[in-house]
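In this section we turn from sequence analysis to structure. A common task in structural bioinformatics is to predict how a protein folds when a small molecule is present, because the ligand can shape the pocket around it. The inputs are simple: the amino acid sequence and a SMILES string for the ligand, here 3-isopropylmalic acid. Study the lines below before reading on.
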Amino acid sequence: FNIVVLPGDGIGPEVAAAGVSALKAIGEVYGHTFNFEEKLIGGIAIDERNDPYPADTDAACQAADAVLLGAVGGPKWDLQPKRPEQGLLAVRKSMGLFANLRPMDVPASQAFRSPLKEEIVSGADMLIVRELTGGLYFGKQTRTEDRAVDECVYTVEEIERVARVAFEAARKRRNKVTSVDKANVIETSRLWRETVIKLHKAEYADVELEHALVDSMAMHLVTRPKAFDVIVTENMFGDILSDLASVLPGSIGLLGSASLGSGKGLYEPIHGSAPDIAGKDLANPIGTLKSVAMMLRFSLNLSAEADALDAAIEAVIKAGQLTRDLGGTLAGSEVTKAIVAQIHA
Amino acid sequence: FNIVVLPGDGIGPEVAAAGVSALKAIGEVYGHTFNFEEKLIGGIAIDERNDPYPADTDAACQAADAVLLGAVGGPKWDLQPKRPEQGLLAVRKSMGLFANLRPMDVPASQAFRSPLKEEIVSGADMLIVRELTGGLYFGKQTRTEDRAVDECVYTVEEIERVARVAFEAARKRRNKVTSVDKANVIETSRLWRETVIKLHKAEYADVELEHALVDSMAMHLVTRPKAFDVIVTENMFGDILSDLASVLPGSIGLLGSASLGSGKGLYEPIHGSAPDIAGKDLANPIGTLKSVAMMLRFSLNLSAEADALDAAIEAVIKAGQLTRDLGGTLAGSEVTKAIVAQIHA
Ligand SMILES: CC(C)[C@H](C(=O)O)[C@@H](O)C(=O)O
Ligand SMILES: CC(C)[C@H](C(=O)O)[C@@H](O)C(=O)O
């Protein structure tokens, strides 16, 4: 398997290295060979190549079986015209990664960490499926001195393909999809709702479907997070709601993500570059390792291996071998070592 | 003072009646005369006039000193082309109500009701200022069979006038403004941020200003709500964030809102039409009475009267004279009577 690694900025390189270690361990135990190719993206790519997404990075991503991303961005690049985030948007668009999958769960044993009261959040277990290559993110932008315009565009095809990902995922989970829009105000949301309803009727009538307005949904995520299984929504709403959901477990260091296109996948922890702790071996590797488990499952079709990695992560959490963000005392690399040891055990 | 009352749908008429009672009591005690004119809006206006915002309603609102709105909407009108919400959007646009003010606070004594852990939320006290007549809500919308487009437009003038409201409000509070945008992705947000920065430098350098991305802000509202004083943002982000913030006190029945233009104001509770409990005298009138207090303060320049109403509400809450949503046993009209008695006391 050819894996492209995009370490990126801040703590990106540390956590990406953890991901590589875990894949190597999986390879040794299960007899697979992973070839790793490292490429530039984000701030470091701006520094070294004056381009947040250089052509050779793109070529490598296009040819890879899967891509592992650390994180991009940092205050260092905040005031310049070329920005690290452009690298992220470019890789999504170029690889056609139209569905961003963000699982979030709060096991009863971890609910004490949540900012929510335990009885509200304990046992919550959801998957947010965010459309990732459409909407305001990639619409036409115009600007004069005193006026700016962003276009939000969606087609039936774009909506169908991401809704399909949500319905398929629901069938493997608790069989319920909540589709989020603002159909009482905007046209793209009306098309969104119509299209989801039609697809549901035609192909997924066995899945329970409900609709929620984005403003209500923001409330529901805080007041009754256990009510949801799979949530599907457009790009900007998904950006907001998936970040909102990500704080419910009490540590964003535990969550991974998968961005999927037709056959292609990019995997990254959700926590970002955290420049304040970069280079100190404090970063929690678990979000990246959860992302690697998704890579094994979705891009490499190695579900036994994915289960083994998830189990190794759980065992180490249960044993209290934790980084400081979770109240532990271990360095990030020590947590990775513990998980690698579990894989070998 | 000429007050137009738009009872609207669901529990709208009950809570609007509570507002009228409170204003009458204030009038008796402080020697003011309020003239009330009732007009149609929303679903009931569709039923009776086939128009969610009839011309005579508009004329009355234009001529009024202030407008009191109950709520609009309900499942009854969900499947028809004319929708109650169109009435709400129309009155905002027609009256030029460009700034929506949503105060939210969680006094220590009430923190036990919050879905958040008490230590996180106790003492939170913020004002969200939402731009209300621009952005995706009022941009050009186009639709073909398989494609929809919404335009999001902002001008410097639109941004400046709402930012001004936020800075002025901050000066009377804790002197801090958090401006929320998605400047790393969309053009209108870049114009938003530039404009807020310029206005701050030119006229409000004494106010502390920070910027947050909308996705991070959704997280912060849950993880550190006490960190914010005044929050200002564009229409759609404001819709989402103000609803998110509204659940932090544990009951949306306690919150009011003001929508202000140049000189004009519309006041409404934030809870919506709650058709399930309509007509049962269960609705909590406090959100409406808080809105009436804002009306006294912002549109009628009666701040002593506003303080008196706020104090009467506080006293009744403290005395435990509560509706069921707050764990009490009183009918909505009994809570209103208790507050009216406090005003007279
Ligand atoms: C960095 C930014 C462009 C990006 C987004 O908004 O998509 C990030 O917030 C994310 O969710 O991955
Ligand atoms: C009903 C709807 C159009 C409205 C909005 O989105 O503005 C509501 O959610 C609100 O916040 O007042």
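The pocket of 3-isopropylmalic acid (ligand 2) is lined by residues A 184-185, 215; B 85, 88-89, 239 (CB under 6 Å). As an exercise, try to locate the residues that line the 3-isopropylmalic acid site and compare them with your own expectations.
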